């Protein structure tokens, strides 16, 4: 495994060797995610985090190579795979060679297929897909390709950690699984059923259903079914407005057990749940915020809040994505040759300021990292979300989660 230190050292070197700003170029990164519609707040906060990470971690430290800077450009896909492909082509036509996306595995599946096809047909304008949040396991299994790198843990890795916590609680005997009706929601359901059965066969799944994504205005009917099922716990992969709507409805209709989630923090959700979610909502995530992973992370978070007082760093993986990309470009000695950059990313070890070591597994381009299960609370919170006084505090940590997990990926590398 290649061992790469954090960006600070290479950025400091860039300040010395990047003497002539006249030769510096701008490396553009296309952010293709929802900036309008029901998931606009999630996408907008993600864009702000990417833009801040690019400036704070790269540009303000002298850039990469001979002073080249990063620019993150937002493209609104309206959470639509079809619109995402249109925006992808617009970005490629503008000469952008790095694509980041995360909201919706349905979109990610469309993008990775299109990018693979584009790169085979257009070797002179190849692009890399840096997936920061779409966690359908297929993306690093049967649908893997050389151009796709995932910086989040996949749904199976996350569910493995969540179910470890669930099965350790002897009071949980009945579980209700509910999620959005697309590839990710189905992956969460499949993993939950499989892993609960393997780890504790006395747990009964008393409900397992999917609902339309981004279209349900009132989750009360779903919440009533959860309550009437007698479930002791709920598992959901919902995100954005669907997470908030479902979670609020379940709690408001009298459910008193834990709700195990993937994305129930930030973007207005934490403030909306407030006291009602305390000690109830649990979240699987990467990167340690409470407690903070390092003094560098503390300084970064405070600087972000100074620029975006209403925002949150609720996706530390965004900063990991920018840091690892910059480090790969430095190692490759170019930003134009994406094959060289991809080769530098493969097998990279990277020390994250949010705590722990990151490893980009070369056989499937799945990032391996520590995972944390935290609880929504207002106690021992240094960094809250939504200026609410509430945040997510770690309760347990799984080191290098999924390191030995199986993959069906048969990686085909360019000659």
From TrEMBL:
Gene3D superfamilies: 3.40.50.2300. InterPro entries: BCAA_transport, Leu-bd, Peripla_BP_I. SUPFAM superfamilies: Periplasmic binding protein-like I. Coiled coil: none annotated. The keyword Transport applies. Belongs to the leucine-binding protein family. PANTHER family: LEUCINE-SPECIFIC-BINDING PROTEIN (PTHR30483), PERIPLASMIC BINDING PROTEIN OF ABC TRANSPORTER FOR NATURAL AMINO ACIDS (PTHR30483:SF6). This is Branched-chain amino acid ABC transporter substrate-binding protein. The lineage of its organism: Bacteria, Pseudomonadati, Pseudomonadota, Alphaproteobacteria, Rhodobacterales.
């Amino acid at each position: 495994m290649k061992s790469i230190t954090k960006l600070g050292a290479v950025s400091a070197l860039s300040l010395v060797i990047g003497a002539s700003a006249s030769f510096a170029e701008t490396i553009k990164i296309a952010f293709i995610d929802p900036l309008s519609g029901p998931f606009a707040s999630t996408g907008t906060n993600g864009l702000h985090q990417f833009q801040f990470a690019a400036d704070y971690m790269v540009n303000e430290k002298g850039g990469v190579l001979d002073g080249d800077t990063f620019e993150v450009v937002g493209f609104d896909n309206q959470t639509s795979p079809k619109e995402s492909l249109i925006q992808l082509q617009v970005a490629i036509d503008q000469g952008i060679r790095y694509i980041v996306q995360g909201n919706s595995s349905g979109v990610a599946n469309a993008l990775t297929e299109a990018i693979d096809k584009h790169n085979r047909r257009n070797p002179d304008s190849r692009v890399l897909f840096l997936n920061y949040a779409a966690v359908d396991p297929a993306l690093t299994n049967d649908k893997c390709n050389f151009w796709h790198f995932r910086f989040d843990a996949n749904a199976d890795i996350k569910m493995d950690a969540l179910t470890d916590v669930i099965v350790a609680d002897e009071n949980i005997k009945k579980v209700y699984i509910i999620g959005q009706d697309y590839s990710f929601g189905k992956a969460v359901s499949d993993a939950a059923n499989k892993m609960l059965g393997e780890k504790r066969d006395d747990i009964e799944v008393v409900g397992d259903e999917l609902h339309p994504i981004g279209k349900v205005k009132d989750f009360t009917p779903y919440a009533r079914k959860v309550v009437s099922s007698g479930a002791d716990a709920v598992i959901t992969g919902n995100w954005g407005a669907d997470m908030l709507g479902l979670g609020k409805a379940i709690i408001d209709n009298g459910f008193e057990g834990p709700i195990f989630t993937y994305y129930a923090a930030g973007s207005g959700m934490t403030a909306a749940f407030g006291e009602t979610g305390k000690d109830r909502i649990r979240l699987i995530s990467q990167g340690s915020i409470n407690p903070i992973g390092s003094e560098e992370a503390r300084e970064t978070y405070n600087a972000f809040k100074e620029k975006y007082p209403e925002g949150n760093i609720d996706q530390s993986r965004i900063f990991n994505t920018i840091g690892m990309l910059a480090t790969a470009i430095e190692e490759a000695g170019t930003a134009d040759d994406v094959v060289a950059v991809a080769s530098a990313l493969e097998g990279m070890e990277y020390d994250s300021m949010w705590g722990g070591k990151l490893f980009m597994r070369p056989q499937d381009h799945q990032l391996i990292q520590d995972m944390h299960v935290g609880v929504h609370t207002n106690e021992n919170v240094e960094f809250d979300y939504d200026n609410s006084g509430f945040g997510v505090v770690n309760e347990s940590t799984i080191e290098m989660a999924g390191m030995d997990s199986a993959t069906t990926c048969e990686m085909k590398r360019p000659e």
